[in-house]
Every structure is written in C-alpha cells, then in structure tokens.
Amino acid sequence: MRVVLKYGGSSVATLEKIIKIANHIKLLKEKVDEIIVVVSAMGKTTDELLKKAFYFTDKPNKREVDMLISTGEQQSIALLSLALNSIGCEAVSYTGYQIGLKTEGEYGDSEIVSINNEFLEKILKEKKVIIIAGFQGINDVGDITTLGRGGSDTTAVALAGVLRCECKIYTDVDGVYTEDPKKNKLAKKIERISYDEMEKMSRNGAKVMETKAVIIGKKYGVSIFVGESLGSESGTYISN
Predict the structure, then answer these.
(1) Is 107:146 a contact under the CB 8 Å cutoff?
(2) Alpha helices in the chain (DSSP H)
(3) What pLDDT digit, counting tens, does each position of 18-57 carry?
(4) Structural element, H or E, at residue 204
(5) Reduced to 3 states, what is the DSSP secondary structure of residue 216?
(6) Residue 85 lies in a domain
C-alpha cells in the first residue's frame, strides 16, 4: 500500500509543527509501506522571499524569482527529513528537478509535463519515506520553474497519478465547505464532491484546492482527500 501526503505552509510553519508531523508519519509507516510526502514552504516564507525580490525592482526577472522562491520548499523537505531520521524513521528529501518533474510554460505559472516515476519506484523499494518539494520542477532548458498558486497541491496530485495511489491534502481546514467557514459560521462541510464540482468551486475562488490539481486528479482518476493536519479523517473526498 502507498499514499501521497501533502502538507501546506501553515502545517509546517514551525519546527514544533514539523516534529509533530514527523511523529504522525512514523506511526503511519507502521500501517502503510510506501509514503511520499509533498511539502510547501514554511509559513509565509514564499511571501518573504518575494518581498526581497521586489526590493531591487518593480519588475524582477521571472527566472530569478523562481530560482529564489523554490528555496522555500527546499528548506521544508530537508527539515522534515531531518526530523524523521532523528526519531528513527528513515527518510530522504528531493527537489522537483531531482525526481525529474518536467515543466513547460511561463516562469511562475508552469504546467507539469511528466514525472520520472522509475526513479521514485526505485527509491520506494528501499522503504524510506520520500519527501518531495512541492510547487517546482525543471523546464526543457534546465531552469527551475514554479507552478503558481497552490502548486504543491498540483505536485502531490500529479505524483499520486503517476504512482497510482490516493492523495491526502492536509491543510488548516478540516475539509471543503459550501462557503468559507472563517467568514460564514453557517457554512457546511461537504463529505464527498465530484471533480467537476470541485473544479467549479476552485475557479470561483475556493482556496482549499487549486484548479490545476483538481484537473490532474480527474485526468488520472486520483482519489483526493482534503482534511486538517493531524486532525481526524473526517474531511472531504474528491472523486468521480
């Protein structure tokens, strides 16, 4: 059995949160043989890096911006791997280009073209937890590119697609709601939703799932679970 887990920036915002996630993954490893984890940059790291880029100019070079902001996820994957190994759970971290995640399109808003699943299958046989930087890949000229808003969701669902397994998206809300629960306390949680309905909600501004990720999920028939980090398994399932 295998699964792809994705943790957003708020879930890995502090070292304390990272060690809690590491402990959770170690327990899960007793039940699930093969675990692939995708993480975002810690907290507001991406925003802070973007501020630095705009310090010099109102129109920073997009290639260099991608080079800069991709380092946020690199910190997260290394720290989570260090945390897991420190508690006796073997883990190894990889950037997008190391796993052969090929992209095309504009810097800052690229599309995933392919992923080298042969490389991942080889590492999975070693029974280590694989931790992958979300939001990034490499284009045909060898430049690091990023996937745009919600890019780590897109990375996670695409990985689940090529590895033929379930994808669990962990965030700071416990599922998909009819409206933003932070703005409307009467909003109701949706237990199951179709790809098409979720895509429509995403296009209309629902931030819980990125549109690109939903489209890839539909294309590969990936069962997607959206729930709260370290919460109960009573979130929302996105499928046919």
Answers:
(1) yes
(2) 15-29, 45-56, 62-86, 117-124, 151-163, 195-203, 211-220
(3) 999 999 999 999 999 999 999 999 999 999 999 999 999 9
(4) none
(5) helix
(6) yes
Q: Would you state the structure tokens that stand for residue 23, as one six-digit string?
A: 């402990």
CA 182 to chain centre: 23
Domain that holds residue 140: 2-174
148-154-160 Cα angle (round to 5): 165
CA dist 31 and 28 (Å) reads: 5
Amino acid at 227: G
Q: Is residue 182 part of a domain?
A: no
Tokens of 204: 């209309």
CATH code: domain of residue 86: 3.40.1160.10
**Which residues on adjacent β-strands are paired with residue 190?**
176
Q: Are 8 and 152 in contact (CB under 8 A)?
A: yes
**Rama region for 5: left / alpha / beta (φ>0; ψ in -120 to 50; rest):** beta
Helix (H, G, I), strand (E, B) or coil at 99: coil
Domain count along the chain:
1
Could you give phi then psi for residue 27, rounded to 5 degrees?
Answer: -65, -40
pLDDT for residue 232 is more than 70: no
pLDDT value of residue 231 = 67
Q: Which of 222, 221, 225 is nearest to 237 (CA)?
A: 225
Q: What is the pLDDT of residues 147-191, one digit of tens each?
A: 998 899 999 999 999 999 999 999 888 888 888 777 887 889 899
